[in-house]
Design brief:
single chain, alpha+beta, three-stranded antiparallel β-sheet
Amino acid sequence: MLSESLDLLATGELTLLGRIMPASNQTYLCRLGPEEDAPQAVYKPTSGERPLWDFEDGTLSNREYAAYLVSEALGWSVVPPTLLRDGPAGPGMVQLWCEPDAGADAVDVVAAGPVAPGWLHVVDAHDNEDRPVMLVHEDSPSLRRMAAFDLAVNNTDRKGGHVLAMADGHRYGVDHGVCFHEDDKLRTVLWGFAGLPLEQAEIDGLTSLRAQLDGDLGNELGFLLNADEIAATRRRVDRLLRTGAFPEAGGGWPSLPWPPF
């Protein structure tokens, strides 16, 4: 199934259906073929990337693909099938469209009070009518793996809207153009796991990733990221394995993305 999805992403004719708003960079919904019922994909051309002060220009598509490679190395399928290819607006990132369950949310803002079973508290706040609310997310294996993945790739923009709750219980993460910076820049809504020990399946995945970073994966990332960013990824994975736990939020850098959704 994965190989078929990648083949389709690589060879399907990209037919633009419209621009996805309000994405900060040019992002298009496409059909992968002329048929009306053809699978859909997200296309982000490199030419449509907005310059950022802390990331090298023209590298966001590479980072999206690098995040997919790390997701596959972990064996967790956090990121939908993704590759780099040419398109109507030039080269860029193409990612298989995964339609989430409209009735499910893995991250939510709810009225302040006791946290429901199966959910974890992140932060308290007030809504636009000054009512007390709290940001929460589900306590699930899929979301734990996503949180560990974000730590490995140094995701600086894990918003609630970047978590896709699929009907089968799987959770996909999307929008990884601002990952892999050499400085620690983690910003995420998934702080409910802070302080919890890693489970054995998470340790096994990270151990496998670390070995691959010294092998073929590291070589492939060398075409997408700079040497300092790859070295920093190794250090972050080493730190996670050494501490054996999800870290607490630190000072000196905002720990939550804004807006959180």
